[in-house]
Amino acid sequence: MKDFFDYTIFKIDKYELKVISLLFVVLLVVVVKVVLWLIKKSIDGASHIDISKKYSVYNLIKYVVIIFSIIGGFQILGFNFTILLGGAAALLVGVGLGLQNIFSDFISGIILLVESKIKINDIVEVDGLLCRVSDINLRTTTVLGRDDKYIILPNSTLTKNKIINWSYGDLASRFFVSVGVGYTSDITLVKKLLQEIIDHQAEVLKSPQPFVRFVDFADSYLLFSVYFWSEDVYGVENIKSEIRTKIFEKFNENDIDIPLPQRVLHFDKSADKPTDS
Questions:
Q1: Contacts (Cβ under 8 Å, ≥6 apart) of 118
Q2: What is the percent of the chain where pLDDT is above 70?
Q3: CB–CB of 119/141 below 8 Å?
Q4: 224 near 213, Cβ under 8 Å?
């Protein structure tokens, strides 16, 4: 049995890979998997931590364990990890300059996981695109757009640019729908109808209470806006569509005019007169 464990699989100069070293590496991999499973089970069982933070904590621990396991694996196989890093220092500097964006993404990934400013299932707005965060990895973050397409974002995009996190803090966010009515309209009736519509919209929160505002005197219409709060940030455009439909139907029932844009053209008649030659 001892001869089996001491059997040399291959040899290069002074380096020898023996069966026992390979078995220890396999055992290390099994132990790491078991440890990570136990850690995940313990974190999932913590009722005082929300799901998104559990994900961040577990991923941070997982990456640390994997890094130390790789170092330990090299040591078991007989490689001096310190010497390897020292010998490859010049190469790493050159590669680092060429791959600085990738390293930036890795650092940004660590920042995202540590700070938890952006978490799984958060609704974020990136460059005008509203998305739901579905996965945060060490280099990239995967988000799901409203058109059910997955988008892979470098983590540096989320740390360097201005990002709106609609789920940060209070889940409810305020939205509005605007409509213009003719100058001859009864503004008291308009405000009453708009308030009734928004009060009976199922997805709209009762508190804070939605309200109607007379916004402005426009060129050819009076502008009103309905303000409301909703927790369905991802599907709010559907809610707005339903509100606009109800406004259109309600205004038609009550003979309230939604004016079309008007343009007045002036013709210079003098330009048609013949000129003296």
A1: 112, 124, 133, 136, 141, 158, 163, 165
A2: 78
A3: no
A4: yes
